[in-house]
Amino acid sequence: MAKRLIIRNGRFAQLGADSKQTTLQGFMVVEEDRIVYVGETLPSEYAADDAEEMDGSRLFFMPGLVNTHGHAAMTLLRGYGDDMVLQEWLQNKMWPMEAKFTDQDVCAGTALAVLEMLKTGTTTFVDMYDHMNEVAKVCEQSGIRAALMRGAIGLCSEEVQQQKLQEAVQFAKDWNHAANGRITTMLAPHAPYTCPPAFIEKFVQAAHDLDLMLHTHMSETEAEVQQNVTDYGLRPVAHLEKLGFFSRPSFVAHAVHLTDEEIEVLAKYNVGVSHNPASNLKLASGVARIPDLMRAGVQVSLGTDGAASNNNLDMFDEMRLTALIHKGVSGDPTAVPAAEAMRIATVNGAKMIQLQDVGLLEAGMKADFIAINIDQPHLLPHTDLVSHMVYSATGRDVAHVFVDGKHIVKDGQCLTMDEERIRDEAARAFEGLLTR
Amino acid sequence: MAKRLIIRNGRFAQLGADSKQTTLQGFMVVEEDRIVYVGETLPSEYAADDAEEMDGSRLFFMPGLVNTHGHAAMTLLRGYGDDMVLQEWLQNKMWPMEAKFTDQDVCAGTALAVLEMLKTGTTTFVDMYDHMNEVAKVCEQSGIRAALMRGAIGLCSEEVQQQKLQEAVQFAKDWNHAANGRITTMLAPHAPYTCPPAFIEKFVQAAHDLDLMLHTHMSETEAEVQQNVTDYGLRPVAHLEKLGFFSRPSFVAHAVHLTDEEIEVLAKYNVGVSHNPASNLKLASGVARIPDLMRAGVQVSLGTDGAASNNNLDMFDEMRLTALIHKGVSGDPTAVPAAEAMRIATVNGAKMIQLQDVGLLEAGMKADFIAINIDQPHLLPHTDLVSHMVYSATGRDVAHVFVDGKHIVKDGQCLTMDEERIRDEAARAFEGLLTR
């Protein structure tokens, strides 16, 4: 018989289209990697003697958070240069350090990132970086779910471009559906302003050949949009449309600077937007038009971006920012209600990366979920627990994390990663970068 | 001999005007309620045998956070109505419930708020509410520092107005400098739009008579500013100036909608602004012109506002929002750097309420400080700990809190308050409000 976990007397976020209320009090049953039942009472068929039991009475259960844009290894540069003008920050701080990154550094930085993400309730993340085999190995071992891709900057010779493309393709082939399906892969030319059109077209062709999704940075800053117009006579959306990018299932990160027409084009091609509010604010890029995108039917998900421009990987923080800033900037207090912010941070993120069976606490879904201890001062009284998760909880409140049915974080401790070793290796890797 | 505490091998935030670096590694010595030494080495005169010692080697020490605007008892209404239009929220949700508040409710709600604040690193808070004797008692017993005032709405008969004024004055007299000086008092007509001019003038006169500071809500929404122009022919700043409000040491909450001329008037009278970013965003009031206020020399501090419009009392959250949103909205990534955000949340808050010896880790200052465990994934590597406190830490990372030299929170547990009882009483109080 399948290994079974019964959670008794918990409160469960219900964010599906058919849900009458956002919180259900009752029972959840997990068998192997799947949720098989959520309901107010426990049907007798599940009450087997040998099932593992969990007391949910002080816990709120919600889908694991899905972080749809980031560069995990950049945790090594957290706090190394803040509050600076973008070009100065990139040229004097980030790029010189990133150029030194070895496999070992990426492994250390990614492990630190994955540990932080798991402990703060993220069960799936998207990573676009270099040395991706190292990233995939960390994901395989830690138990997290991930969509991975080698991000390729094309400001180099055609020969080097070709190498990067091959590397990206090889990585995508090697790791797609690895780790019991927890790892999927995509292709990712870095951005229209860092990739010549012909280079982007090669990625589009490869995505067709391998049937993979495409991801890229787009329209993060106004300057980059203007540069695109100067260089190619088109704004980035029309430019990518022309290069065939949107002929593939695809999603873009940032999309801060969009016209109404561009929003329509994204909706038409079903191109998703990974919103990264903290990073966009910190780098002074602006505030993305999220309510307008959602009204137009564009799928929106949430990302942290790299830790160097955030500076944390706590998706609770992004969820709260999303619920707050669009109200303040639009003047509409009903913009992005709490339950919608939670959907954006969970099920919408899963759908964005084509995980149709992740992101809801419903029978048939993957058992990717987290539990928060709600008997804490800042989560009382228990008026509206979804609201509390969005407006008052932090990732530090997460007590339990399950991915693919496996208990990964228990009482705040990560069971699959050696925290002390990871902390030490990250500190040593950073010292090494400073002295090399 | 005075009771002495020596903290060894800690890292200490140094935010004073003379500080060469924002973090100092070394020693801090506390005697009774004062910091007597902070430095890289420990002078032999402090190395007494009977001193209490604390190992600071995994901790970052910073001044306790100062929350300069709030309504503590409103924790009882946390999550009771979110994402609504302001008037609907006030008229259908907040006011009917608040009208039922008894002494006991205010005691329960304030205790929950103070517990949350202490555990998340706030050592001083400003409270404007009703049933203030209950609030003062909670402060006295919990060990927190507070500036308290009876907030008076003047939309009532002159007789009731007079009662409220007397109540406010009596409270201010009874509690000023109570609890070993931890409690100070002020006077607070609620807002220009809720208080007739003559009522505000009476508060101004009473503040002169008793030599007290004044505090009020001002220009939170554009609608309220326009109403002021309609009713009195003046925008709120000119209106309050005319009523003599600024002839007293005073500070206002919100100040979201200000003209350049109004900013100049606030600077001229040295009127401070308590910025409440989360509340202003959540209620869709807008984004205050904080960089402009600071450039004009207006003192700026930080507040959470009540938990019903936030919905937490974690000042780390406000500190991060302040460092993030003004960059994103102004387009200037150097706006409100991390160290400045920390000053606004600590020493500037203390100065705002005339506590000249609170808010810095320096010899001679009151021993109001907190310690954060920095050996955590989201606070590594140790590049810039002030940046980490602002951009990555949360109040849930606070391990120790000292107020007036007393150890109030130890390893995350509050030593002065009975957490379980407070949680139960808050839950019961909320149930009572629902059913009465």
Notes on the protein architecture:
Chains A, B: Its cofactor is Zn(2+). Chains A, B: InterPro entries: Amidohydro-rel (IPR006680), Deaminase_MtaD/DadD (IPR023512), Metal-dep_hydrolase_composite (IPR011059), Metal_Hydrolase (IPR032466), MTA/SAH_deaminase (IPR050287). Two copies of one chain form a homodimer. With 436 residues, the first copy, chain A, is an alpha/beta fold. Chain A folds into two domains: 119 residues, Urease, subunit C, domain 1 (Roll); 288 residues, TIM Barrel (Alpha-Beta Barrel). Helix content of chain A is 38%, strand content 21%. The first copy, chain A, contains 15 helices and 18 strands. In chain A, strands 1, 2, 3, 4, 5, 15, 16, 17 and 18 form a nine-stranded mixed sheet that branches. In chain A, helix 2 runs parallel beside helix 3 and helix 4 runs parallel beside helix 5. Chains A and B meet through helix 2, helix 9, helix 11, helix 14 and helix 15 of A and helix 2, helix 9, helix 11, helix 14 and helix 15 of B.
Number of domains of chain A: 2
Q: What profile does the largest beta sheet of chain A have?
A: 9 strands, mixed
- By DSSP (H or I, 4+ residues per run), the number of helices of chain A equals 15
Global outline of chain A = globular
Mean pLDDT of chain A: 97
**Poorly predicted runs of 5 or more residues of chain A:** none
Assembly level = homodimer
Keywords (chains A, B): Hydrolase, Metal-binding, Zinc
Domain Amidohydrolase-related (chains A, B): 61-406
EC number (chains A, B): 3.5.4.28, 3.5.4.31
Family (chains A, B): Belongs to the metallo-dependent hydrolases superfamily. MTA/SAH deaminase family.
